[in-house]
Amino acid sequence: MDSCVEEMLDSYLGEGLGGVRFVGICGMGGMGKTTLAHEIYRRISSNFEASSFIANVRDETKNRGQVSLQKELLSKILMEVEINIWNVCEGINVIRNTLCNKKVFIVLDDVDEEEHLEALAMKHDWFGPGSRIIVTSRNSNLLTTCGVDDIYTTKGLSYGDVLQLLCWRAFHKPHPKENFVNLSMDFVNYAKGLPLALKVLCASLFAKRTNEWKSALDKLKEELERKILYILQISFDGLTNTQKGLFLDIACFFKGDNKDCISDILESFGYYLDYNISVLIDKSLITIDGNGTLWMHELLQDMGQELVRRESPKEPGRRSRLWIYEDVIHVLKNNIGTEVVEGIMLNLSIQKVEHLSAEAFSKMKNLRLLKIGNEKSPKGLSYLSNELCVIEWHRYHLKCIPTNFQPNKLVELRMHCSGIKQLWIGIMNLNELKLIDLSDSQNLFEIPDFSGVPNLKQLILQGCTRLCKIHASLGNLKQLI
Questions:
Q1: pLDDT single digits (tens) 10-44
Q2: Among 32, 42, 231, 364, which is disulfide-ready with 337 (CB 3.0 to 4.6 Å)?
Q3: How far is Cα 476 from Cα 428, in angstroms, rounded to an integer?
């Protein structure tokens, strides 16, 4: 924390400089934005003529209204109990006229709407020279739009910092007790650098025995702590339905994938990718690293997956996404999938799935994504939804795709290490298909008529050692790389 405070004071706030400066603190929920702002306020607020820390602006605006927050701001700065303001416009005028010659320090915590700043601290000329205004928010785009001078992005605590903080809270000393070393490490790994998670964890651990620590950790692994989930879910709840779907798909299926490699897939899901990805980034829900890889904090991923589980706590077949071993087996074995199911990721052992039937997919009319990673998975494609956009069926063991399989939206077909001899017979009308991966399918001997796949961009045949016949239509595919 000390290093973060020093960085803010030295590189962002420029306390010794003249002029008025607005600084944003941005990051995902629970990352310590408020804690950082509190510590800075504690250290330097006495250096100003007056100061005011307005906490929980988002919630307090809903609960009390903007006028009440305007009164609180002025009351703290002017040291007056009674502030007479009757509407927001009047409050803006009073703030501007009263504070324009005062050197003030103001913190506005948890701002998520532009109107919050419009009512409390919209422009530099509202405040006197040397004033500093800190705004914490989960939305970096909001801070940029409102014209803050600089934005500090909070980072997760280091492993050592997390361990030390845990020990101070749980043992009142900088190191774990002898019998608690491994348990302490487990909790540190679970927190993943998120200060909120550590705060919630530590609240119930002080002076507890090792068996109580183990019980608390087991509980957390089964169900995300409600306090953590509540904080993390605030940003999710502010998304549109399309953006929520994109976030859940990344949490359940696509975290760790390259954005460019899956852009066609996500576009086929109707996500308007460039815009909605930027919204998730602005709200600190996901990141994209320098290699283009989609990432999110592990606890945000846990939160997304928990929200899917809560769609139907007792019956997995009524959830939109299935990726957990036991849930997928349960649904396919008992043939209880429903129209709600949109995506399945199935990486199972041979022994567990020999008895499953393709009919298990018959009720999943809205299935968009199917990833199967085993040669003994259900036979055939005939029962699959016409809404499918992605099929990954590794070690598909039939000799040919059935002619009655004609999905309307298929974008990717991945069947590496399959037993296919001929991909299909005749012409398959798959106008949206852009990628076919048959790598290491060593029984493949013929490439069929591709007249029905005019938009194919990639055909991967690496390791297809028996391939000897290629249909002439392959030469007519103008987009093929």
A1: 888 887 778 999 999 998 888 889 888 999 999 99
A2: 364
A3: 16
- In a 3-state reduction of DSSP, which class is residue 215? helix
- Pairing mode, strands 50-54 and 150-153: unpaired
Least confident of 101-115, 215-229, 396-410: 215-229
Burial of residue 462 (number of CB atoms within 10 Å: 0-12, 13-18, 19+): exposed
Position 352 pLDDT exceeds 60: no
Contact in structure between 138 and 27 (CB atoms under 8 Å):
yes
427 secondary structure, DSSP code: B
Spell out where 347-408 has E strands.
369-372, 390-393
Q: How many residues does the chain have?
A: 481
Report field, pTM of the whole predicted structure over 0.85:
no
pLDDT recorded at residue 188: 83
Q: What is the pLDDT of residues 455-472, one digit of tens each?
A: 999 999 999 999 998 899
Question: Residue 65 CB: number of other CB atoms within 10 A?
Answer: 13
- Do the beta carbons of residue 149 and residue 22 sit within 8 Å? yes
Please report, in angstroms and rounded to a whole number, the separation of the first and last CA atoms in the chain. Answer: 51
d(CA 123, CA 143): 13
DSSP string, 10-74: IIII-TTS-S-EEEEEE-STTSSHHHHHHHHHHHHGGGSSEEEEE--HHHHHHHH-HHHHHHHHH
| 421/401 Cα distance (integer angstroms) | 10
